[in-house]
Amino acid sequence: MSAHVAPIANETEGLAGFLAQQQDAFRSVAYGLSDAQAASTPTISALSVGGLLKHTAEVQEHWLQLVLAAPGRPVVEESDADKTAEHLDTFRFRETDSLEIALKTYDDVSARVLDAVRTVDLGVAVPVPEAPWFPKDIEAWSARWVWLHLIEELSRHAGHADIIREGIDGATMYELVAGREGWPETPWLKPWQPKQAPTLR
């Protein structure tokens, strides 16, 4: 993924392009981390890179199922208490969790979301979910609204993840993207590489 979205010819391309860009930010921010580092919370926040990766995968899956079921609702509807507990749990990346598995889950849902962006009518009515944090005076949003909301959601959490990653090992986003994609080193940008252990004499 390049550092910028390619030129777009229509609304669908724009939604898919900018959503894919934000999805890719989480692959970059997790690049080179161990499971323990992904679970670490180096800032005053309780958030971790791994937790944000799990959360954004769950958020994408949630909205995807709503869009695919529209204009109806998904068959299974949980109680408000169950939804709240599950939502909060997605932010937790335990030391027993696997970053490799979390990334595979994330990549799978991200690909299915992008497929839906390209194939589902942007104007289809998506019923507002039954959860305490959603408005009660709106019956439905469009699929277009959902995809824009996901861009907003992923962008916010990508910023959180940037700060957390920098707190782990000092790595910043452009360094990580350059390291992932093999960009050449320049006077102003050095691609991220794992720190070498000191040589023992």
Describe the structure.
With about 200 residues, the protein is an all-alpha fold. The protein has helices spanning about 10-30, 35-40, 50-70, 80-90, 100-120, 145-170, 175-180; strands at about 125, 140. It has a two-stranded antiparallel sheet with strand order 1-2.
Blueprint (SSEs and pairs):
Elements: H1 11-29, H2 35-39, H3 49-69, H4 80-89, H5 99-119, E1 125-127, E2 140-142, H6 143-169, H7 173-181
Antiparallel strand pairs: 1-2
Helix pairs in contact: 1-5, 1-6, 3-5, 3-6
CATH topology: Four Helix Bundle (Hemerythrin (Met), subunit A)
In round numbers, the mean pLDDT is 91
Q: Can you summarize the main beta sheet?
A: 2 strands, antiparallel
- Helix-strand makeup class: mainly alpha
Specify the number of helices.
7
Q: Which strand order do you get reading across the main beta sheet?
A: 1-2
The CATH architecture designation is Up-down Bundle
Summarize it.
The chain is an all-alpha fold and 201 residues long. 56% of the residues lie in helices and 3% in strands. The chain contains 7 helices and 2 strands; from the N terminus they run H-H-H-H-H-E-E-H-H.
Quickly list its features.
globular, 2 strands, 201 residues, single chain, 56% helix, Four Helix Bundle (Hemerythrin (Met), subunit A), two-stranded antiparallel sheet, mainly alpha
